[in-house]
Specification:
The chain has about 240 residues and is an alpha+beta fold. It has two domains: about 10-135, Ubiquitin-like (UB roll) (Roll), CATH 3.10.20; about 155-245, no CATH class. It has six helices and eleven strands. The protein has helices at about 10-20, 45-55, 125-135, 155-160, 180-185, 185-200; strands at about 25-30, 35-40, 55-60, 85-90, 95, 105-110, 205-210, 215-225, 225, 230-235, 240-245. Strands 1, 2, 3, 4, 5 and 6 form a six-stranded mixed beta sheet that branches. It has a three-stranded antiparallel beta sheet with strand order 7-8-11. Helix 1 (about 10-20) runs antiparallel to helix 2. The longest helix has 14 residues, at about 125-135.
């Protein structure tokens, strides 16, 4: 297949920056909860400096809880040692347009030690690299696919927080397995999700509404999976659930 739409080379990014089409580059890595952490770089600074030399982030980001409070007891980083920085190294193979944001590109970063320049062993992407390397040594090729699951509410995030996340208004109200009519009522959300995924380097096959065993409506989004850490594509389909209630 052809290269997915939205993927960028350094040269293409530089041209878009010069033309004023890209002004910001997000460099990010996942924490242990799967949340994206990182920085927004000025696009000119990124193409001139950061793409080659990387950036920095505080190592405490790999030790916090869901409320971003540092958790004591980690050997990797703690108050006794004093929190320092890790080196964010862009994986240029993941560079892409972030079509859901205005004039923005996105790149996944590896987390490396500032002192040794080795991969930080407790960083999720470092763990994934070790796993795929072990698979390769055993004669296997690793292909990854993500199930995109979510619940959809009419209540905004801010209002939900004020309500202590109770009594939220669901987007759906009955079992709707493969139900086209009910799906049309919230198609604005899924159409945008499919469009932005496709335009940001993630090919999408389909989306579908499903019924959960507990009676709460679910959704499914099917995309094309990518192989291993480096994003090589494989001719199979990702089966993903997108849930709502």
């Amino acid at each position: 297949m052809n290269k997915p739409r939205g993927m960028l080379t350094p040269e293409a990014l530089r041209a878009m920056v010069a033309a004023g089409e890209i002004e910001t580059v997000i460099g990010g890595f996942t924490d242990h909860y799967g949340r994206l952490m990182g920085k927004r770089f000025d696009a000119e600074m990124f193409v001139d400096e950061v793409a080659k030399s990387g950036g920095h982030a505080c190592d405490y980001l790999l030790t916090v809880d869901m409320e971003m409070e540092p958790v004591p007891g980690y050997a990797f980083a703690n108050w006794e040692l004093g929190y320092g920085d890790v080196h964010m190294v862009p994986d240029i193979a993941t560079l892409r347009v972030a079509s859901w944001l205005e004039k923005t590109a996105f790149v996944v970063c590896d987390v490396r030690s500032e002192k040794t320049h080795d991969y930080v062993p407790v960083a999720p992407r470092s763990i994934l690299r070790r796993q795929t390397e072990r698979a390769r040594q055993a004669g296997f090729a690793a292909y990854a696919a993500t199930e995109l699951e979510h619940y959809l509410f009419r209540t905004s995030y801010r209002d939900a927080a004020h309500q202590d996340f109770r009594n939220l208004e669901p987007a759906g109200w009955y079992l709707e397995d493969y139900h086209i009519l009910q799906g049309t009522r919230t198609e604005g959300f899924h159409a945008a999700a499919r469009r932005h995924l496709k335009l940001s380097g993630v090919p999408v096959e389909t989306s579908v509404r499903r019924g959960a065993r507990d009676g709460r409506p679910q959704r499914g989004v099917q995309a094309v999976p990518e192989g291993g850490c480096r994003g090589r594509r494989h001719e199979r389909h990702l089966h993903g659930e997108v849930r709502r209630r």
